[in-house]
Amino acid sequence: MTEQQHSSGTDETPGPDGPDAEAAATEGTGTGGSGDAAAANGGAGESGEPEPDPFAYPHEWEADVVLSDGGTVHMRPIVPSDADRVVALHSRLSERTRYMRYFGAYPRIPARDLRRFTTVDHRSRVAFIALLGDDAVAVGRYEGLDSESAEVAFVVDDAHQGRGLGSILLEHLAAAARESGLRRFVAEVLAENSAMVRVFRDAGYQVSRSFEEGVVHLEFDIDPTEDSLEVARAREQAAEARSVHNLLHPRSVAVIGASTDPTKIGYAVLTNLLGADFSGPVFPVNAEHASVRGVRAYKSVLDIPDPVDLAVVAVPADQVEAVLDGALAKGVKTLVIVSAGFAEAGPHGLHSELQLVGEARAHGMRVVGPNALGVLNTDRRVRLNATLAPQLPKPGRTGFFCQSGSLGTAILADAGSRGLGLSTFVSAGNRADVSGNDLLQYWETDPNTDVVLLYLESFGNPRKFARLARRLARTKPIVVVKSGRHAVRPQLAATSTDIDEASVQALFEQAGVVRVDSLAQLFDTALVFAHQPLPAGARVGIVGNSSAIGLLAADTARANGLELGIEAVDIGPQASPEEFAAAVGDALDSPHVDALVAVFAPPVATPGTRYARALRETVQARDAVDKPIVSTFLAVEGVPAELATLGDHGQPVVGSIPSYPSPERAVNALARVIRYAEWRARPQGAVVRPEGLHPERAQGLVREALPADVRHAADDGHPVSGHPAGRRSGDRDVRLADAELVRLLECYGIDVVPFRVVSSEDEAAAVAAELGYAVTLKAYDDTLRGRPDLAGVRLDLASDHAVRTSYRDLSEASGMAEIYVQRMAPKGISCVIGLQDDPSFGTLVSFGLSGVVSTLLGDRAFRAVPLTDVDAATLVREPRTAPLLTGYRGDEPADLDALQDLMLRVAALGEDNPEVRSLMLDPVLASPEGAFVTNARIVLGSPPSRPDTGPRRLRQLNAPAG
């Protein structure tokens, strides 16, 4: 049986056949006996018709989803007008599917039940309908049983069983149920329907089972677990990878708009497909010619007699909609639109782009583009060049995703000239649908790709990118050029998220992504990854025939934090190739060398080819060399023939030695590879939840602090400004008062050094005595208190007189009677720990040292939550000023463990409470005695809606992607 033959529940008793019955079809829940009770739960009146509570239609639940075979469907909450679709679905179900779902033949459903199935309240009674085009292919629903549990059931069209619809419906139903406050699902399944039992069991939930009279009763909590999240992510990866596989491994290709005019893009695409000797049939589509480039042409894609897997669209933008209609009718799986004139052309083009991608997804199709250069696959079993680039790169083991169509041709030419072979290449143009994230999913399991290169102008879903990149980078290096550091181009705004540069940098560093500043640096680095092993350490050897070039290499190595494992070896300008090879061999054999830089400056009338061959042969003579080697043969760039180890098809493979025209470029590329190897060798760490956390109590405090209209309001990102002691409920954001702040921090074991607010000189003196000397007095006003000259702070006050004098000074300076009195913390290094919410990226924890210089230099480290223990340890040590914490110039080191523990607690607070928009602990005094929080600030707001935090779905099309 399949996942669609789900039977569950007790609320849909088949009604009698007869004049009142309609030939109905739905998936309802139930097997006979308790329909009345379920109907009552749904609010049915005496007439039997449902009267659900009037909750608004949840547009945010709509989603395009990728199925296990790479196709797509559109899923949304059911509405009464879906009745005809439900009837049609039921009419297509086999007898066995109906029996498994309804525990009986159930050929028809009465009109009353049909209305009930399609009229829901989106709260206690929820149903999702999966649509392929205008046809319903699956329905999943739950019916509330009590305040915490609901009964769940599904049915899927026989023709679409085995595509993963059941598991996706379960994810979306569980998310909707949790949003409504439910915690548990129950289901009733026929004992013989083992496939349905597996759907629930394999979802990663802890399912309890009982058996009675041939029926299995299943029950499970729907809160996400580590297992359920892992299952969902694995299924997501497999489905999205399959959708890209369909794109890059077509069995046939149609070129719609194939032209006889050499100046047209339709001519170029067809020419390149034929020139690459694509392994399958190519079908030109041209309404005016019987053949194009000697290949029979067809007036329409519908006239092609054979199936079409991939269609490349090269017609004017105003004709693409009609082309899409024909491709959908033909059953084309994937569309590559090289046509321009969409989002990049303005609002009208953007509207057309969103419409066509939405229509394609709804009919099961993925889209590359518009405004794309195209796609290619160098696999000799495929030989696909569906791009505007005339030359197919040599086969290699590097995958490349390029967001820019205009740069694509130059990128491919540059890769070819350097001897960098590619496995696959996708230039997505406007990236309206298929994105870099889809390619990351594909390359993770692609056996033909070892290195991943990305040229990105913006992010569609940065949070998902971080998750995918971090997982992929553990096995395959990712090198990225990220342009657009300051703003997203207007034409990309609808499919992009503009995020802070600090967030981008944190994303890359945490994920192990190698970020470079230019395409030249990208290829420099890729050549090492593609042809050389990863080093075991950061000790570099330098061998050459020029002391000047060797010195440049050594200086660059030191500037990159690399260690010279041995003294640079200068064999002199008159040395023979054999002497050069011997020196290289000695360096490789040294236990103090992890990587080698070989430099050669040709003396007059001495060609470098013999020295290059000697270098290559020396390396090849050593079995399993595990030390990367880069070289500088001046004016030689890439992998020349003399340095290449050739594969079966004549292309450079692993073991080839890249050459760079300058020693600086060679060493810089090697340094990036070494840093990546160090990241990969570090333990991944574990997400740590420190002891003594009370998230339930914290949530209660948050709910109490946030007015109801703010808790449920849309997140509009308005900043708060105002008095440090109060909150302003009229704002979208709410700043916690001191007492609220202290209680919330205490829920996570974060103690603020004791303080009180006083409003008179006598009260200040009394509180100081109560807290115990020494104390500090601080201005109540944020601005004065935070001045770098400490004008608003009086430290280390050890007497009644000092307190009174300081109170008068601060009160006069601030113009306020209120003053903070706080017990002095042990002296230490002032640090700042922050938590900030990025609506698209998620929550970031930051760490740095306090002070104007650190602020001006931006000397702050960032990591995304959840934090691992390794993340916390890295945060403390990453700022350039961090050596001040470890015993600089003989000072006693601060307690770094206490700082790390504090950051883990801050991260847990942010992860558990999405309403926390920002948190700042400033300063935290780090000393040998511990880490002491002396000042804090927390701002709450409505919890943001973030991508990649719920059930599986493709990026939304109706708003800037996030």
List keywords for this structure.
single chain; alpha/beta; Rossmann fold; disordered N terminus; seven-stranded mixed beta sheet; Aminopeptidase; 21% strand; flat; 962 residues
Write a brief structural summary.
With 962 residues, the protein is α/β, with parallel strands linked by helices. The chain contains 28 helices and 40 strands. The model is unreliable at 1-50, 488-498 and 713-731 (pLDDT under 50).
Structure characterization notes:
The structure is a single chain. With 962 residues, the chain is of the alpha/beta class. It folds into five domains: 21-223, Gcn5-related N-acetyltransferase (GNAT) (Aminopeptidase, 3-Layer(aba) Sandwich); 242-527, Succinyl-CoA synthetase domains (Rossmann fold), CATH 3.40.50.261; 532-681, Rossmann fold (3-Layer(aba) Sandwich), CATH 3.40.50.261; 684-751 and 826-962, 2-Layer Sandwich (D-amino Acid Aminotransferase, Chain A, domain 1); 754-824, Dna Ligase, domain 1 (2-Layer Sandwich), CATH 3.30.1490.20. 33% of the residues lie in helices and 21% in strands. It has 28 helices and 40 strands. An eight-stranded mixed β-sheet has the order 2-3-5-6-7-8-10-9, with helices on both faces. Strands 19-18-21-20-22-23-24 form a seven-stranded mixed β-sheet, sandwiched between helices. A hairpin with a 2-residue loop joins strand 9 (208-212) and strand 10. The two termini are 38 Å apart. Residues 1-50, 488-498 and 713-731 have low confidence and may be disordered. Keywords: Ribonucleoprotein, Ribosomal protein. This is Acyl-CoA synthetase (NDP forming)/ribosomal protein S18 acetylase RimI-like enzyme. Residues 1-57, 940-962 are annotated as: Disordered. It comes from Prauserella isguenensis.
